[in-house]
Amino acid sequence: MEGAGPVFVVLLGAPGAGKGTQAKYLAKALEVPHISSGHIFRVNLQVDSELGRKASDYLARGELVPDDVTIGMIRDRLAQADCGRGAVLDGFPRTPAQAEALDELLGERGARVAAVLYIKVDEAVLIQRLSGRWMCRQAGHVYHQLFNPPKAPGVCDVDGSPLYQRSDDTEETVAHRIAVYLRQTAPLIEHYRKRGQITEIDGGQPIEVVSRQSLAALPEG
Ligand code: AMP
Questions:
Q1: What tens digit of pLDDT does each residue of 133-142 get?
Q2: pTM of the predicted model, to two decimals?
Q3: Structural domains in the chain?
């Protein structure tokens, strides 16, 4: 993809589908930033910024943060210099209004969404994955107590930071987040399908297989 214009890739899929894991892989392969809207919110919550305070209740309940707040945040992030060659978007857009805003934001830069990967996983598997999930404090690297344990318990293999369980990964909030996804985000699959941009990938396969298929689905990938 050397010499081509910026490459913006959108990952769609339910919570627990593996978007974060695959986004990290693709961002590294494409040498572009990985932008996780959920991670940005969590970091802001930790430092108790104005954005963090605005998002806090929504995250705790597993609801979507209002579009104006979320779109403003992504606008600021995409304006940073490291997005000049593109980005892998993980968790954004999540509503039709966000998808429209993304088109506008990229259009202002003479860019567009290059590909949309829909990582599909059965609901029962999602719940199992989320309730055993651990993340690192520093960069959000993801582990699972059964399926993908860290080498040393409680410590991130990549950066050595402590692992924690997300407070919205409780069984009750997980079920609600999946319902929110089905109601508000799943319609985007049809939106991008109509534009001929969706590649569906079976997210129930081993991580490396999903990664390989994801990379192969990108233009010139
Ligand atoms: P995630 O890490 O992607 O599972 O996101 C965690 C939480 O952050 C979600 O349950 C929402 O409360 C919030 N969030 C993340 N991305 C968005 C978005 N694009 N729109 C609204 N809320 C979001």
A1: 999 988 888 8
A2: 0.92
A3: 7-123+186-216 (3.40.50.300)
